[in-house]
Structures are given as structure tokens and as C-alpha cells.
Amino acid sequence: MQRKSNRSAKAFAGRYRWTLAAVMLGAVLLSGCSIKKLAINKIGDSLANSGTTFSGDDDPDLIGDALPFSLKLMESLLAESPKHRGLLFAASSGFTQYTYIYVQQPAERIETEDFAKSQDLRARARRLYLRGRNYGLRGLEVKHPRFEHWLRENPKAAVHAVAAKSEVPLLYWTAASWGLAISNAKDNPDLIADQPVVEALIDRALELDSDYDHGAIHGFLISYEPSRKGVLGDFADRCRKHFRQQVDLTGGQLASPYVALAEAVSIQKQNQDEFEALLKKALNVDPDTRPEWRLSNVISQRRARWLLERESELFLGKDSARAPADLSISLQGRW
Question: The dihedral of CA 99, 76, 174, 11: what is its sign?
């Protein structure tokens, strides 16, 4: 009871901070120009470092209702301070995570019952992912002018301009949002053609900090490797390598790598025993063991249950393996 009370107090404190930030924003917009810019940057710093206010919550629906307000608040601040790197990072990661959980996953769940609505949601997901990508690119261009131009000209060469470990979060979220947009744009050849750019960004992030955010890059690559072109060997071996690294980095206390491997490899290889074992491990993770990953684990366990409910559809024989799974992201990152 005491732990629940403490959690409620923390959640209230987090929501109070967002409300206070909104009130402060209204006040500073009426202030002098230089004072206003300073105040906006201070509020931006606070929002960009919001800690576990959202990620430690155990109610995904409550967070889903709150996130649009916080995202629009960030955009309002960015309109006044367009080169605030912390806010650009927060907007990129925030839009990507919100879209993955509250737009893409619902689209997948209703696809068989209402295909038209599912496609509408996927189109919306693509637009929101691209918004997150654009904020990530803007964040990288603060230090590297015309980065997007050079990235499109020669991706592998351009990413080497990013040499600081501190820029890995922007590399990761830009790659994640861009890759997820591509996974929801199978009828858009121009966007699909950007796949080498995504690979260059995520591979550079891996080079600079392979342990970033307890293995978030490895988590993304578990889902991405089946789509990588021109690489020798079995994609499953690469996926399993990234899986082992993320599990090691999270001490087995994060459910998402188990779910990601089940979708990316077990279904593709039609290994039903492995599929069940992985998802059971995901469901056995205690969300309260690592409070900062609580929301991620609750959401991943929801997906694990949904996949198990669809097991008879996913394993129908050797000739019925479905198309490669949609990309997923590790959500233990910031909110």
C-alpha cells in the first residue's frame, strides 16, 4: 500500500510539473524578448529531462491521454527556440514512442477486422514518424549544418561527421523514427529507398555507443536485421546476437527483446516452441523490479499476450510464414 501511495505521489508530481510548465509558458510569452527566450530555454531543459515521470507509470492508457499535450507543448517551445537540442531530442523520441504504441500497434490489432481503418492508422503513423524524424535531423543539424543533405548524398560517409558519444541519442531516435516510417510505407517506393540512410544512422550509433540506453540499439536491430539487404549469412544469427546483448545489458528484466525476437525470428522460421518460450519469458518479467522500465514492460507484455492469442494464425505450416515483422523499438528509453 505504501509503495502504491508513493507511486501515486510521484505520478501527481509529474503531472503537476507539466501543468506548471504550461502556465509558465503562457506567462513568458508576454515577457520581453530576451527574458522570454531565457525562460523558454529553461522550461525546455526541464521538459527534455523529465526523468521517469512517464516511463515509471503502470497505466499505458493514462500516459496515452497525456502525451499529445506534452508533445504539442514541446512544439510550441520549439517554435520560439528552434535550435534547442534537448527539446529536439525529446520531440523526436516522444513522437516516435507515442506513435509506435498508440497508433501503429492499434493499426496492427484491427487489421483483420477493419482493413480500411487499419490503413488509415498506418498512414497517420507514417506522418507522425516522419515528424519525429525531422526533429531528430534538426537536432543533428544544430552541430552539423546541412547534415540531411549530405546524408542523402552519401549516407555512410555523412554519418562519420557525427563523432561524439553524446549525439548517439539523436542518431538512434532519428534512425528509429525513419525506419518505422518505412515499415508503414510499403506502397511508397521513395520512402523505402531511404533504407540505406536508416542503416547508416543506426550502424553509426552502434559504433559510437553499443550499450546506449541499456541496449536500445540492439533491441531495434533485432527487428531490423531481417530487412537488411546485401548481407551474407542468416539474418536470424544476427538477430540472436543482438538479442543476447540486450538481455545481458538489461539483466533479463526487460520484456521487449523477448517479444522482438519472437516476432522477427520465431515466426519467420516457424519455430513455434521458441515463440512460446520467448513470450512466456516476457510475461514472467516483473514490471516492478525496475520501476523506470515499468511502462515499457506493461506494454510489451500486452503485445506478448496479443501474439499468443494469434498463435494459430501465425503458425500454419512451412508454406504460410508471413511477411517480415514490422519494426519495433525498445521503450526503456526516455519519455
Answer: negative
The per-residue pLDDT for range 37-63, each reduced to its tens digit, is: 777 777 777 766 765 567 788 888 998
What's the CA gap between 303 and 245, in Å, rounded?
Answer: 22
Residue 161 sits in the same domain as residue 297: yes
- Domain-ending residue, one of 53, 82, 111: 82
Q: Which three cell numbers stand for residue 39?
A: 525562460
Please report whether residue 331 resides in a domain: no
Task: For residues 267 and 314, give the distance between their C-alpha atoms in angstroms, rounded to a whole number.
Answer: 7
Q: What is the DSSP string of 245-293?
A: HHHHHHTT--SHHHHHHIIIIITTTT-HHHHHHHHHHHHHS-TTTSGGG
In which domain, by residue range, is 251 found?
A: 86-320
- Residues 103, 188: one domain? yes
- pTM score, whole prediction: 0.84
